[in-house]
Amino acid sequence: MKNRRVVITGIGVISSVGVGKTDFWNQIVEGQSGITEVERIDTSELPCHKGGEVKILDISKYLEKGQIDKMGKASQFGVIAAKLAAEDAQVQLESLELERVGVSLGTTYGEAQILEDIDDHLYLNNKKEDLAQLCEKFPYYQINANIAKVLKLKGENIMIPNACAAGNFAIGYAYDLISNNNMDCMFAGGVDVFSRVAYLGFNRLKAMAPEKVQPFDKDRKGMMVGEGAGIVFLESLDSALARGAEIYAEVLGYGVSNDAFDMVTPHPDGEGVLIAMKKAIKDANISLDDVDFISLHGTGTKANDKAEFQIMSQLFGEKNDDILVNSIKSMLGHTMGAASAIEAITCALIIKTGVIPPTINYENPDPNCNFNCVPNIARKHPVTVALNNSYAFGGNNTCLVLKKYHN
Amino acid sequence: MISITGLGFISPLGDNLDAYMDALINLESAIKPIQLFDTGNYTACLGAEIADFDPKKYLTEKGLRYLDKNTKLVLSAAKLAIEDTKNPLINEKEEVGVVLGNTFGCLNSISNFDKMAITKGFTSINPSEFANTVANSSASNVSIKNNAMCMNVTVSSGYTSTLDAVIYACDMIKYERAKVLIAGGVEELCEQLHFAFDKLGVLSNEKEPKSYRGPFDKNSRGIILGEGAGMFILEGDKDTGLSRGKEYGKILGYGKFYEPEGNHKTGMYKAMEKALRNAGISPLDVDAVIASANGNNEMDGNEFEAIAEVFADSGDINVISIQGNVGECYSAKGAFQIIAALGMLEKQVILPTYGCKEPLAHYKNIKLYSKAVYKNIGYILINSFSTDGFYSSIIISK
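Output (structure tokens, whole complex):
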């Protein structure tokens, strides 16, 4: 039985539009797009050439050379985001019982760029001298391990590579551990770096938009691949109040499910999403009427966005016309395992500030997808309860519930 | 407490519990020269493969074509586990979920996908194979095949993956987020995995299986990889009025520790101590430890010391390792350890340790066996420890 309330008191984010909470938030409220021409891989053979690469991060500003050399890029992202979250939370980690402070992280492709280097060595004769070190850095769990090494954390340490819903799974488990008094504080979220396999794979599936991501728009053409990291610092409410921490939002609960249908295609009736959302609402002990805002998965594909509208209509009925929603994938592209974590962070900041960032590139409403999606310009609107929805390859569905903290 | 009411596995020593236990009792090993790929360019040539694995023995052919071996292994094990349990909830789609320990399961698929793209070009990529490149593909296929909708989670922590997945599953049941979970672990011995471990310099360069020295042996030359999958049906121990049929055992408690400074002995000690405390038992109550030891002398030595310290005041402690029989199965390691524990409880036997002829240390209170010994066993502590700072232990009881 849950016996402790859990709150978000620190935010760390790396995105194509901004690094750190303030930069990130200012840019997405302004509706800035982080989509640019892809530089990491040769796109000349491909139908699409754009993506959400992070080009504005100077890693040497955050990590020493010795640290950078020991980690892959995903670990660097994770460590920097965790450090930013700790700074933002203004928490003195050394004063905590570090066996009760842990890391819960999600990803889709982990240290994808290390595997690319190994494959280039094996198959293109592009020889690497440090193969043994590459092999050591590669396993996905090195990302959460490196966060714990740098911050000297000895609590729970878990990697949940549940693809595009991984961040919500990681935050959900961290919430469970704290609310059940198994841990006191957790760094939780998701990380992914730009992946050649992801970019080529989605191109091959013809799922990618050539120019821009247009969630819910009638002429939307697909998704785009991005990269980034989102990590929140979670602690018990008592702990936050005791040290006078600024509280962004309270985590009320979450729900998960699996479509049990197909690896790539979501369930046509949205059964799995409905199960996850109903579980989340029950877990959070709220009603549908309490929901003010939903961060939708909103990838910008024909299928996803239409299915989401049908599901939300079924669940909320007429209220669906009033609930405000958005998709920041319109600005960042799909940051894979980081997406649901960055979107959870966005929900927390929406709750805190009463400002909802826009869904950009919205030009023509789609009657089959007619969300109240805050098109193109941010809107001031108080939000008390926000849902953060994310779905993934393999049929995983998640819904995280955040609420404005009231004493 | 969590009950184990079904199991299924595909191991280098077969898929039948009695045959598996007979092999362990009679000191049989699956370690032999690798056949599935050419080891000519590697230091190591031995492995514990399932070279004759035929998924059609367990699964219908429909839909198998685009699934990778990792997924076929886990689907087969899951099917056996589901058929084994008598819990009627197993057919209630919203009540059943999947939690799988899996670290490199998609490695073969990702690397081959990438290889095709960079050597033959974009248009030669088969889009049907893209879904196999995500780490959760094997676990998700278990849900798809078995209509398990409650949840689907993959846990990746290398050597500790299965125990960590089982611990996550136990938490989900305790937190009332699931009633029945199909939980376990899988690892495929593919060439990419062998390459990586070979490059790290941790594999044994032993050429002759008969000369193999492994867990706890001072002359061990390193580890030998294995493969397979093991899945368990886990459910809460509350009286729900359900007919459970056979209960193989209970998961009494567990402990995990992450040691960021690389002090293996401390991490191992802490994990065991946490597991005992969580289970509400003392070291005196434990009848056997199934060790993580796999022939890595540094880790094996640290585990010896940590066990000796945990059990310092409790008289003799029986210690076993099965990695000499089934190889080091990495993400599936814990699955074969749990199966061995359940078999030991059923047959009331302490297993011998294959591959240990000259122990690397002698501790007064640690007993290693060169042949099986039959005695009363109630509680077994299982360790899976990682060179990367993850340490996990669970306690299994009758």
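The CA atoms of residues 46 and 203 of chain A lie 7 Å apart.
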